Amino acid sequence: xxxxxxxxxxxxxxxxxxxxxxxxxxxxxxxxxxxxxxxxxxxxxxxxxxxxxxxxxxxxxxxxxxxxxxxxxxxxxxxxxxxxxxxxxxxxxxxxxxxxxxxxxxxxxxxxxxxxxxxxxxxxxxxxxxxxxxxxxxxxxxxxxxxxxxxxxxxxxxxxxxxxxxxxxxxxxxxxxxxxxxxxxxxxxxxxxxxxxxxxxxxxxxxxxxxxxxxxxxxxxxxxxxxxxxxxxxxxxxxxxxxxxxxxxxxxxxxxxxxxxxxxxxxxxxxxxxxxxxxxxxxxxxxxxxxxxxxxxxxxxxxxxxxxxxxxxxxxxxxxxxxxxxxxxxxxxxxxxxxxxxxxxxxxxxxxx
Length: 353
Prior knowledge:
Helix content is 24%, strand content 34%. The chain is of the alpha+beta class. β17 (263-269) and β18 (272-285) form a beta hairpin.
């Protein structure tokens, strides 16, 4: 389970498990998971001699609300209604026991929820055959599920960017702008320095300006060193950077040169080191997912810490650094897409399966 899902699992499980009928004042089961939370709530109430249904419901609403707040998620409408209806009932003496019971219940709910944990009617986590979990958007009317794409904001206001249902990490391009997602948490970076670059309050990389700390930034966002960008592509290969800014979903092929072999060369300039790979080609992606017209043919420049995916013999995916390409048996490959930093250096290559 990835870090994003771990952060939200407990509260999401409670959401999936519970529905409260305000008209009857009785907790109603909507799926098989709800029995765990209902049982836990009733056990706490019984242990505290809460035979009064009003206090039991008030305790349930308060404890569930605390569960959501702890996970940084907004309270569902039915919980807000419950808090409003039972706001005058004092159950403070029972809150600790109730919180512990709901925590145990939510863990049981995660284990019992099968292949999906509902966030709401339109977004759902679904486990994959390889053991990972991906976020799907679900059409409420048809039930059709598609891998979630684009921005997602959680209840605490943190922003994430999803690609094919997975939280992205590192640099991404959206609507012609560069954004950075923390590699560990996936959270959008804002108002800070990220390597040789700076991002503003909205998370977009700052270009051709002066950073808040007085650092001069070049046309490509890189900080300057002696009037020269620390990171700078040669004019001949800067073309691919511009193509990817316009369309980040281009296919990338890393293959042999016209002379019949591939080449990867370590380079260093102005205090920045990278690897130049020859030969890289970029292709359009047709609407049906097939490979379209070739748009670029030339060198591709990798950051030294770039992550390059490759397929193992058993079909699993591993990653390597550019320094490990030579002799790896994976010297040439087709990438589903690549990520670049604001200066255009490749940070990530997703293998095309």
